[in-house]
Amino acid sequence: MRAWQDLRLALLQPERAADYPLGRWDGVLRLAQGSLLVASLEASLREAGVLEALPEPVRAQLESARVLAEANARGVSWETSRLVRALSPLGIPVLLLKGAAYAVAGLPPAKGRLFADVDILVPEARLAEVEQALYWQGWLGTYHDAYDQRYYREWMHELPPLMHQKRQSVLDVHHSILPPTARYHPDPAKLRAEAVPVPGLSGVQILAPRDMVIHSACHLFHEGEWDKGLRDLYDLDRLLRHFGAEEGFFADLAARAYELELARPLFYALRYAHQAWDTPLPDALWPALAAARPGAAKLMLMDFAIGRGMRPPHPLARRSFDGLARFGLYVRGHWLRMPVHLLIPHLLRKAFLAG
What we know:
Layout: H1 2-12, H2 22-34, H3 38-47, H4 56-87, E1 94-97, H5 98-105, E2 117-121, H6 127-136, E3 139-141, H7 146-155, E4 162-164, E5 170-174, H8 188-193, E6 196-197, E7 204-206, H9 209-220, H10 229-243, H11 249-259, H12 263-277, H13 285-288, H14 296-309, H15 322-337, H16 340-354
Parallel strand pairs: 1-7, 2-5
Antiparallel strand pairs: 1-2, 3-4, 4-5, 6-7
């Protein structure tokens, strides 16, 4: 338990971590590693100017994470340029999502963030053209089973993941931010219409600030895998602190969430980012999202599940019922994305293949 609080403090108030003895750092680094936050921790400590005060073995691990994160960022920059080359003949901009968007735009969550793939958003009507253009540039499909093909192409909001045959980079091509089978149906055309260009990168776009926050919330609270949940909440905290400095941002954020039918996941994202990272939020935001607030029983259940599911998946942070909470979140994520008649056979298939 203490190691979790030490990690949290080191990220939020890094100057106070300068006096941690080596034994405390052992727990902090173990939890940070399990949460994909080591490089983010290095960035936080470096900005606070306290790296040199840390024990040498700690600095060595943090430096290694920094080098890896910087290589990751260079890889994203190169992949983005190759995507522009592939899609520019079609007149389709490279609209980056999530981690790749943070990286190319130099946003706060990019500092020390690691990610394994690049996500883009394209019009559904042009998926076939996009897939063919990417094929000729070396991105090939990775799922060839008939069920997987049907799962992605009919039920999901993306093509089956593509991998570049030479660089082994993974690309996810989305036509929406939620599957057509999901409970909520945000219009992807509205997201593309307000996308903004990335200065200095011709043909590259990212979501508008409020849409970027909403998409981050939507992605997190419709996922079934919570091994990256704490890192994703940290991303949200960084985005909200950054964009929230703009006058009127939070009022526009709530209104846009209702417009996109995503006010409920935004409510959850704000609530749990504040609980995990003390994210500063205006008091007026909660009345604006009152209609999205779940009932008392459901909210109590979510508080229990998220309070345990978002914690680092490590014995040093373990509490009772963590496994049950993560299993519940796993089922919930799939249930929100698929109707029961598709969900049950899909989960049974996954369980059978895993066994």
